[in-house]
Structures are given as C-alpha cells and as structure tokens.
Input
Amino acid sequence: MNFSSFGFDQRIAAAIAAAGYETPTPIQEKTIPATLAGKDVLGLAQTGTGKTAAFALPIFQRLLGGERCAIRALVISPTRELAEQTHQAFEMLGKDTGFRSMSMYGGVTVKSQVKTLKARMPEIVVACPGRLLDLMGQGFVDLRSVETLVLDEADQMFDMGFMPSIKKIIAALPRAHQTLLFSATLPQEIRALAKQYQRDPVRVEIGNSKPVETVSHYVSSMGQNDKYEALRSVLVEDWGSTGSGGQTLVFTRTKHRAKRLAQQLANSGFAATSLQGNLSQGQREKAMANFRSGRAAIMVATDIAARGIDISKISRVINFDIPDTPEAYTHRIGRTGRMERKGVALTFVTPEDSSVLRQIERFIGAPIERMSLPAVGE
Ligand code: AMP
Output
C-alpha cells in the first residue's frame, strides 16, 4: 500500500513526500480511511507508530475547502513537550495548505499566547488541558467551530488527573464533531470515556499495546546503593549500544532523583541533562533541544516529562528505578526502538521490586532476560 491510495490533495501529498514517508505505517493504513470518512476512531497505539501523521494528514484533507481563521481541529495533549512536537508535525505536514497550527500550554505567559493567537488565527490548536481552559475562561478561545477533536495519549491524561478538564473542554464543543481517541493502553476509564463521547468508533489496535518488538529487554538485580555504579558501568562500557551513536534515556521515580542523578553524571564527565516537572519552560525546552541535537547523549527524566517524546536516536532506555505499573513500563520502553530501529531496555531491580517485575513480565507475556553488569575498573 502507498499513500496515493488515500487520495490526498496534491498539497498534502507533497508534504508527505517531503517528509520522506514512503509507505503508511499500520496505524496510518488502518485509521486514515476512517478519519477521512468522518468516523470516530479509537486508536490503540504507542508513540513511535506514526500516529501523529495518522490523524494530522486526514485532518488537513478535511479542512481543505472549508473556512479559515477559525479553530476547526483541536488536539489535547498531556504534556507541553508532546503538544509542541505535535504542533511541529502539523506545521511540517500542512505547510502547503496554508492552514495554521498553534500550541498552547502553561509555562508561557498568557499574554504572549493571546498575541500569537490573534496574529496567527490558527485552524488547528494543540493544547494541554489546563492552559486551554484558562484561555477559554478568559474568552480568548472559541471552540464553537471545532469539527475534529483528538484526545492524544488519553491514558496518560487520565493518570495525570486531566479527565475533569477534558470533560469541560468537550462540553464547549459543538454537538456534532468527530472524536479521535488515541491511547497506548485501554484501562477501564478510557473505555468509559470512549463509550461516553464516541459514536460507533472504528477501533484499531496496533501491536497489542505491548512494548515494541524491536526492543531487547533486560533486568539486572542490585541493591539501591549499587545503582549509580551500575549505571556508570553501563555508560562507560557502552553496554547495549547499537553502535550507531544512539542516545540514552534514564528514568527515575521522582523529579528530585532525576535532577540529582543528572548532576551526578555531569560531575563524572558525562554529557547528561534532565527533564522533570520542576524545570521552567525555558529550561525544559533547552534540555529537550540539547538531547534532540545530541549535545547531551544522556537524559534523565521522570515518566510524565518524557511522555510521548519522539527522538528516533534513543537506542537505550534504562529504568534506574522500576516503573510503578506495566503500562508505565510500556510507555517508557516506547521511547526506544522507534520506527523499526533497534533498541535496548534495561531495568535495575532491587529486592523490593520483585512483585512489579512479575506484573511487567506477565503483561509482556514473557520473562525478561536477567543479566549481570560488568563492574567498572575491573
Ligand atoms: P509518532 O508515533 O507520531 O510519534 O511518529 C514517530 C515518527 O515516525 C515521527 O518522527 C514521524 O515523522 C515518523 N513517521 C510517521 N509516519 C511515517 C511513515 N509513514 N514513514 C516513515 N516515518 C514516519
């Protein structure tokens, strides 16, 4: 199958070619026809599957020929980084259509956002729920022309406590609108959300929400106090590296631990940065830019901050602290092995982690290979 079978307008087809996309990914193949036909879609797919283009491309096609300078497509994202990334994808894929996108999230002044809103008059808004509600409350955003709503990473939004805000936002939309709901996992709450807000959705499931198959999984047992040395040995020995100069994403349980670990690594001479919720918006952007460009080879992050990040060069994910749930494991591991590239996932486990580890293995459907790490300096 190729993109021409969707019958996209020439302006969209040109952007697809310019982006270097040759064949549609499975989620694109299965959801684009339904979205073009105006149906609701429930897409179970992680990031890294091409889901952003899966909704952005048919949204542009549906916008063509219609009104301009009114918000006609609204994407709700759990994090600022994902909102920004999605906005950039819309900009790239829609550059020949003349439609404009804008991102809205906290950490940037309301004033500057209102200024951008008035200057750009976007047809597409990609927003985090809190800031969008603020701007709606102050009368700056009018959602009465929205035709398509995208709820992206819905399970994460639920985990972050955004459901009440999302329901308020939906209440401000016209009754007849298309809803595209994407989620990596399908807990009961997301099932209920789909039931309440979608009409007979086309359900598409990619990869059974299991961690991508191009990733090799390992666990290594150790005491809490041995973790730093173990991490150092992995980095020094370049263990698990694919040899293509890939980057390493390290997850910790708390913001404080992420900050401290990144500092410790930087003090030991590693090019490390951190991404966690205590940073200002400017600092978050700088950390992301450093990691994206490869200036920082290592990023230490918390779950929430790293959610949905698309950096294809991440070859290793290291769980310095094991995640709390199998779903969180899936999300973390989804940061590597993207678009069929190979990746390695290594989880440090202490004796207290054994029950979560068992749950993760049950979820993946296979035991994870145990490995012992080479000791540094031996
Ligand atoms: P996403 O899952 O939306 O985060 O996308 C992951 C990455 O895949 C992004 O860098 C996209 O630009 C890229 N991508 C999306 N669709 C395709 C495609 N059909 N062929 C190749 N790359 C793609």
User: Anything to note?
Assistant: The chain has a mean pLDDT of 90. The domain at 3-209 is CATH 3.40.50.300 (Rossmann fold). Residues 80-93 form the longest helix (14 residues).
